[in-house]
Each structure stands twice: as C-alpha cells, then as structure tokens.
Amino acid sequence: MKKTTRKRLLTGGAVSLLAVGAFSGYQYFTGGLERLPQSVCSGSVDRRVVIAALPAARSAEEGSRTRPSGGRWIFTCHVNSSGGSIISGEVEVTDVTSEQWYNHYKDQGEGVPLKAKRGPVQVLSVAEDRVTLYVPCKPAKSASSATQVFITDARTIGETHATGPELRQAITDFAYGITRHAFDLDKCRGVDSLPVDLSGTY
Question: Are 199 and 173 within 8 A, CB to CB?
C-alpha cells in the first residue's frame, strides 16, 4: 500500500473517530431530555412535548403526585432540567363557573390573553409561557347531576426551546395531558367527548 493512501485512510479514520466522539459528547452534555421516559408523569405527557418546550440540557428529572383522597389537587406534574428550566402544572377540582375562571386568570399575563374552545375544553393562554384549562367533569360514582370542574394551570420557568405560538402549543399539550390523566383518576363520565388532543390551537 502506498504511503499516501495509507496516510489518507488513517486521517479519514481519525476524523471519523473525532466526529463520533464529538457527537457522543454532545449527547452527554445536551441529551438529558431525550433520556426521560417516553411518557413522563405517570404516562400523562409525551416526552416530545417536553422537548418542544424546554432547551437541551445535560440532565433532567420528572415527577408527579396524586392528591390524597378528598384533597383539593387531583394531579401535579413537573419536569426540571439541569439548566434550570422547568415545565410544570397542576389540576384542581372546584365548582367555579367558566366566567369566574376566565376573570380570575385573564389579567395574570402580559398583553391580551388568547382563548379557544375544543368541545368541552376551554383554553386560556394568559401569556406565552402560561396556559390554563377549564374542563367540566361528571363523576362516574356520583348519582347527582352536579358537574364539578377541573382547572389546570401550567407554565414554563426559565429559558425555553420554543417561543411564541410554538411555546403556547407545547404548554397547552402538556396541560391537556395531565388533565386527561386527572379525568381517568377521578373516573369522570363523558371522557369520550373529550378531543383526542388540542393540536393546532394557536
């Protein structure tokens, strides 16, 4: 084998090894979100929603909690990254009207809040980084015709990967995931009337 050919092969191999090493290093320092479970928070939210919202980070951890019997909160969920960015939300059970809900949240962000409705689900994006949902629920175990209400409040804290409509959509998807999970926990009737997802809200 000629020296020049051998040199080229050795050089090419070294470059390939460097490229692989660089990629592995990049994954080590930025692939924390990709190492989360495929569905976070007891399977309520797809990992892709979190990746859409939060910036790359070296590591990330997720957690959720279900309320004790008779408690005010039904379900909470959070994902924290090593870079200090967070996406989190809570689902509360209450009996307020949609007008009371809207009036409570509408001034909690900057600018004009964006409101949307999909079936029984009302969405209010009070800011680019915060969304609240209003969803009626009829408990399956209750003989009463009374309807309780789920209010979900979700937000990001710190730097985000997405901005504008993309960030609003990611937080809305996150909020809806934990809301549907709360519906299952509380055994609400009418689950089949809920939309499959809230994609394309903004």
Answer: yes
What would the pLDDT profile of 154-170 be if each residue is shown by its tens digit? Answer: 999 999 999 999 999 99
Radius of gyration of the chain measured on its C-alpha atoms: 22
First-to-last alpha carbon distance for the chain, in angstroms, is 63
Buried b (16+ CB within 10 A) or exposed e, 61-89: ebebeebeeeeeebbbbbbbbebebbbbb
pLDDT in tens, 3-51: 554 444 444 544 443 333 433 343 344 579 999 999 999 999 999 999 9
HSE (side-chain half, CA atoms, 13 Å) at 15: 6
Task: Give the C-alpha separation, 137 to 184, whole Å.
Answer: 11
Is residue 165 within 8 A of residue 131, CB to CB? The reply is no
Q: Worst-scoring range by mean pLDDT, 66-75, 108-117, 119-128?
A: 66-75
Cα separation, 166 vs 189, whole angstroms: 31
- CA-nearest of 57, 60, 59 to 45 is 60
Closest CA to 131 of 97, 95, 101, 161: 101
pTM for the model: 0.83
Cα 128 to Cα 9: distance, rounded to the nearest angstrom? 52
